[in-house]
Amino acid sequence: MPRRKGAPEVNAGSMADIAFLLLIFFLVTTTIETDAGLDRMLPPIEPPDENVVIKQKNIFTVNINKNGQLLVEDQLMQLKDLREAAMSFLENGADGSCNYCQGRKNPESSDNPDKAIISLKNDRETKYSTYITVQNELVGAYNDLRNREAQRLYGRDFTVMEAEFLNPETPSNVRDELKDKVKRVQEMFPQKLSEAETTSN
Asked: Which residues pair with 194 in a beta bridge?
């Protein structure tokens, strides 16, 4: 009786080449998502004026402690009330020079939007999410005031106009038209948000 032949051997010599080609294929065709980061526009670098004196009443202090609690002007405040408090400070108009401000003209608060500064300070142990949420509320206060004035002047929200102006796909003639409008509203409520050095208390 003839001997049975063993199972045929598979030639594995080219398997390494096939695996290498597949690796290259997946490396080339796979898209890797990247973190877009935070959408924050930094103010332009301007040389400081000499002998600048800032009155304490023109500074709106916001502190976040390590427990995530808000201290606004040394008083505990809920996050939901922060935006309204910041808006009241920004458009207080104590010196009467702001004819579009709707504030209370409290002599103990800011003189006008150009002099009003919001100072944000946090503890080293503050949660990042809390810090960003507070910062969003403060930026939102500026945007709400700018939207109000843009609606009054141009019948459009400032945030919409700014996004269209900054979009590189916007036609140049439209961007030229928006440039002066965006600049005018920004100058009405200049964003002066100072981020103070963190503390370790």
From this structure: 119
How much is the pTM?
0.74
pLDDT per position as a tens digit, 115-131: 999 999 988 888 888 98
Query: Domain ranges in the chain?
Result: 56-195
Q: What is the DSSP letter of 109?
A: S
Place of tokens 């916007």: 170
Q: Which residues neighbour 199 within 8 Å (Cβ) at sequence distance 6 or greater?
A: 121, 122, 123, 124
Can you tell me the mean pLDDT for 96-104?
Answer: 91
Range 75-83, long-range pairs (CB < 8 A, 24+ positions): 79/133, 79/134, 79/137, 82/134, 82/137, 82/138, 82/141, 83/137, 83/138, 83/140, 83/141, 83/144
Q: Which among 157, 155, 179, 156 has a CA at the least distance from the CA of 167?
A: 179
Q: Which residue has the tokens 């502190």?
A: 63
The model's pLDDT over 47-96, given as tens digits with 9 standing for 90+, comes to 555 666 778 899 999 999 888 899 999 899 999 999 999 999 999 999 99
User: What is the rounded distance in angstroms from the CA atom of residue 158 to the CA atom of residue 56?
Assistant: 30
First-residue to last-residue Cα distance in the chain: 92
Nearest to 154 by CA among 184, 112, 189: 184
Single-letter residue type at 142 = Y
